[in-house]
Amino acid sequence: MSRELLRRLGLDLPPLPTSTVGSFPKPEPLLEGRRRFARNQITRTELERLEREATAFWVRTQEELGLDVLVDGEQYRGDMVAYFAELIPGMKTGRLVRSYGNRYYRKPVIVGEVAWPGPMTVEWWKWTQSLTGKPVKGMLTGPYTVMDWSFDEHYPNRAAACLALAHALRREVEALVEAGARIIQIDEPALSVRPAELPLVVEAMHVLTDGLDAYFINHACYGAFETIYPGMLDLPSHNLDLAISQSALDLLAIFARHPFTKDLSVGVLDVHSHVVETPAEVKARVRRGLEVLPPERVWVDPDCGLKTRSVDEARGKLEAMMAAVRELRQALA
Fold first, then answer.
1. pLDDT tens per residue across span 226-272
2. 172 φ/ψ angles, rounded to the nearest 5 degrees
């Protein structure tokens, strides 16, 4: 069914389509530009020029590597939640909190009624798509994660805050579809944080996607997916993109016992490790996915965004991934 949808949308993808989760490391000129902008040493226009140069660099890199579905690399974003919170009316930037390891972000605060401020990602998507003939994914953080990663000082409960955000972000998804985005990824890394709230995530995703003509991907990383499976199959998306590069490969055994009914993006690169995988390691991980799903329903990508790696590490990991996929495609042929 998903293959038919992709073809109807004009997307003729090869077996084992390849992509990335979204973020790429920021090249040094952009990092320096962001530091200088924070010190009021350059203008917003100068910073945006650097962001566009970095985006174009990553588009060229993805094309050189041979990826099938490209991303803009999120060179204009900092944290995946704070970026949207800084733009959405009714939210403000809060204090620094630890995300993981030694990484911190400014936790947003919901202080009033949230609303759509107008396009937040659309112009970046349109500009990136203009650079390539390959499809570029639209990408945004989902309402449940924005709610879960924020302090709420306005809504009476978590469900009310989540659904209000869903209705606001629905406008962004509509704008992406209207602009021509045929594949849209909605990131919900908080998906399995509270298994009892899975029905809320499902309801919010229906608000975002119902009635829209696009191929929808839900990405979640490093979750206790076994606690919400098979319930997460109720999500109204065509593809679940799951971080299963390491121990969570055991999740595939659960899929074998209870059929997985969607397409699966197999996260085969450990983005939190400096080690560059070998093509043989990647092939072994993809084959685990092929044990439980036919090739036409398996996508291949890293297990999360690559922004925490160096430029050379990110490229090396993707080179290994693409080498493995080329070998697997030959074997399948």
1. 889 899 999 999 999 987 665 555 676 777 788 889 999 999 999 98
2. -70, -40
> Do residues 18 and 321 lie in contact, with contact meaning Cβ atoms separated by under 8 Å?
yes
Residues in the chain: 333
Give CA separation, 125 vs 71, 135, 245, in Å.
Answer: 8, 10, 28
Question: How many angstroms separate the CA atoms of 249 and 64, rounded?
Answer: 29
* Type and span of the H or E element at 265: strand 263-267
CA distances from 168 to 115, 157, 208 (A): 5, 17, 9
Maximum CA extent, the chain: 58
pLDDT of residue 244: 67
| C-alpha–C-alpha distance, residues 229 and 296, integer Å | 22
Q: Phi and psi at residue 308, in whole multiples of 5°?
A: -85, -5
Query: In the predicted model, what is the mean pLDDT of residues 301-310?
Result: 94
Report all structural domains of the chain as residue ranges with CATH numbers, in order of start.
2-332 (3.20.20.210)
Which sign does the torsion angle of CA 259, 260, 266, 272 carry? negative
Cα angle 167, 168, 169 (rounded to 5 degrees) comes to 95
Q: What does the block give as tokens for 90?
A: 């009714």
Q: Supply the pTM of this predicted model.
A: 0.94
- DSSP-assigned beta bridge partners for residue 291: none
Hey, is 117 helix, strand or coil? coil
Q: Work out the pLDDT band at 100, boundaries 50, 70, 90.
A: low
